[in-house]
Automatic annotation (TrEMBL):
NCBIfam families: GABAtrnsam
Cofactor: pyridoxal 5'-phosphate
Superkingdom of origin organism: Bacteria
Family membership: Belongs to the class-III pyridoxal-phosphate-dependent aminotransferase family.
BP GO annotations: gamma-aminobutyric acid metabolic process
Record-linked Pfam families: Aminotran_3
Top-level class of the enzyme under EC nomenclature: transferase
GO terms for MF: (S)-3-amino-2-methylpropionate transaminase activity; 4-aminobutyrate:2-oxoglutarate transaminase activity; identical protein binding; pyridoxal phosphate binding
This protein's name: GABAtrnsam: 4-aminobutyrate transaminase
Length: 426
C-alpha cells in the first residue's frame, strides 16, 4: 500500500493545482463520525464532507437503500425512462419544505446545478434578467455560480468575465459594521443606481452564509426582503444547500424566519454522501420552463434518490433535529468555557450560529482585525491531534463546525477536548 506522501506525489503529478486539497492524508475508510487514513491514523470528522454527511458516514440504512437499488438498476436517465422513487422523493420534499402552498421539485446532481436551475426558473417565470446576491455569499463554482458568489479569493480570480445582470448588495453584519438598516438602504440604492426593481427576477440569499463565515441572516432582514420581493414582483430564492436537513436545528433554516421563499435550492446532506440536489418551489413558478428546459443526464440518479429517501427517514427516526440543537449547545458551552481564558477571549470576535451550524471568528488581540493566521494555527493543531476542522469567512478567519449529527456523546467529548487544547495552545 502506498503511503500518504507517495499518493501526494502522484496527485501533484496527475491532477491540477486548481483542485485545492486541505488534508495531507488519504482516506481508507470512514464510519459515522470517524475517518481512518491509509496509514491507520484516525480522525474525528468535524467537516462532514462540507456539510454532506449530517447522517454520518456509511449509515447502515443508507448503505442498505443503495444496495437494494443496485439490485434493480443504476441509471436510466429519469428524462428518458422515469422511476417512481424520484416522484416519491419530490412528494416528500414538497411536503417538508416551508409553506402549505402547492409545490413542485426537480432534482439535479450538484449544488451549483441547483442554483443555476433556480436562476433559469426565476428568469423564465418572471421574464426578467436581473439577479441580486450578497457580499460573502457562496453559490458555486460554475460560471453563474461564480457570478453570484460574493467572495473573490479563491473562487473568482482569473475566471472572468462573468454572466451579466448579476448584482451584489451588502450582507448585514453588525460585527463588520453593516446594520440591517444599512443593508436595506444599500439595496434601495442599488435599485436607484444599477437596476430597476421591475427588471429583477430574483434575490438569492443563504439563511446562514456558508463560505462567508456562518453569518446568520437577521430575521428582520429576511422579513424585509420578503416584503420587497412582494412589492416588486421579485422571486425570493433561499439557498439551503449547506443549511438544510437538520443542520440548524430545523429541517430547513427558513423555518427560523417565518418567511416562505418562492424557490429553494437543496443539496449536500440531502442524499447522505451521494450526489443529488434539487430545486423546490411554488408549482406555477416551477412550471414556467418548457419541457426539456430542465434536467441533466445524471439529474435525480436512482442510487442517490434511494439514499435521500433513507436520509429523510433517519432524520425523523433518530430525531436529528433535536440532536442538532443539543450538540450545538454543548459546543457553544465548551467554547464559552474555553473563552474564560483571557488569552483565548482576546482573540475571539464572535461565536455564532443556529443549531449545529456554529462558527467561531478570530481577531487580532491588539488591532482587532481579522486573524487568518491564528485560524490556521488552530486548524493545524487540531488536525495534528486527529480533529478535522474547516475554515471559512471572507478573510479566512473563521472556524466552522460541521460534525455529523449522529456523532456519539463520547466522540463529541473527545473532540471538544482537542478543540479546547487547540484554542489554548496558540
Amino acid at each position: 500500500m502506498n503511503s500518504n506522501q507517495e499518493w501526494k506525489s502522484r496527485k501533484d503529478a496527475a491532477t491540477p493545482r486548481g483542485v485545492g486539497v486541505m488534508c495531507n492524508f488519504y482516506a481508507a475508510r470512514a464510519e459515522n463520525s470517524e475517518i481512518w487514513d491509509i496509514e491507520g491514523k484516525r480522525y474525528i470528522d468535524f467537516a462532514s464532507g462540507i456539510a454532506v454527511v449530517n447522517t454520518g458516514h456509511r449509515h447502515p440504512k443508507i448503505v442498505a437503500a443503495i444496495q437494494q437499488q443496485l439490485e434493480h438498476f443504476t441509471h436510466t436517465a429519469y428524462q428518458i425512462v422515469p422511476y417512481g422513487s424520484y416522484v416519491e422523493l419530490a412528494e416528500k420534499i414538497n411536503q417538508l419544505t416551508p409553506g402549505k402552498h402547492a409545490k413542485k421539485t426537480a432534482f439535479f446532481t450538484t449544488g451549483a446545478e441547483a442554483v443555476e436551475n433556480a436562476i433559469k426558473i426565476a428568469r423564465s417565470a418572471t421574464k426578467r434578467p436581473g439577479v441580486i446576491a450578497f457580499s460573502g455569499a457562496f453559490h458555486g463554482r460554475t460560471s453563474m455560480g461564480m457570478a453570484l458568489t460574493g467572495k473573490v479569493d479563491p473562487y473568482k480570480i482569473g475566471f472572468g468575465p462573468f454572466p451579466g445582470e448579476v448584482y451584489h448588495a451588502p450582507f448585514p453584519s453588525e460585527l463588520h459594521g453593516m446594520s440591517v438598516e444599512g443593508a436595506l438602504s444599500a439595496l434601495q440604492t442599488l435599485f436607484k443606481t444599477d437596476i430597476e426593481p421591475a427588471k429583477v427576477a430574483a434575490i438569492i440569499i443563504e439563511p446562514i452564509q456558508g463560505e462567508g463565515g456562518f453569518c446568520v441572516t437577521p430575521v428582520a432582514f429576511m422579513q424585509a426582503l420578503r416584503a420587497i420581493c412582494d412589492q416588486h414582483g421579485i422571486l425570493l430564492i433561499a439557498d439551503e444547500i449547506q443549511t438544510g436537513f437538520a443542520r440548524t436545528g430545523k429541517l430547513f433554516a427558513m423555518e427560523h424566519y417565518g418567511v416562505i421563499p418562492d424557490l429553494m435550492t437543496i443539496a449536500k446532506s440531502l442524499a447522505g454522501g451521494m450526489p443529488l440536489s434539487g430545486v423546490c418551489g411554488k408549482a406555477d413558478i416551477m412550471d414556467a420552463p418548457a419541457p426539456g428546459g430542465l434536467g441533466g443526464t445524471y439529474a435525480g440518479n436512482a442510487l442517490a434518490v434511494a439514499a435521500a429517501l433513507a436520509v429523510l427517514d433517519i432524520i425523523d427516526d433518530e430525531k436529528l433535529i433535536e440532536r442538532a440543537n443539543q450538540l450545538g449547545q454543548r459546543l457553544t458551552n465548551q467554547l464559552h468555557t474555553t473563552m474564560q481564558d483571557q488569552g483565548v477571549k482576546s482573540r475571539v470576535a464572535e461565536v455564532r450560529g443556529l443549531g449545529s451550524m456554529i462558527a467561531i471568528e478570530f481577531k487580532h488581540p491588539e488591532s482587532g482585525k481579522p486573524d487568518a493566521d491564528f485560524t490556521k494555527k488552530v486548524q493545524a493543531y487540531a488536525l495534528d491531534k486527529g480533529l478535522l476542522l474547516l475554515s471559512c469567512g471572507v478573510y479566512g478567519n473563521v472556524i466552522r463546525f460541521l460534525y455529523p449529527l449522529t456523532i456519539t456523546d463520547a466522540l463529541m467529548t473527545e473532540a471538544l477536548g482537542i478543540l479546547d487544547a487547540a484554542l489554548r495552545a496558540n
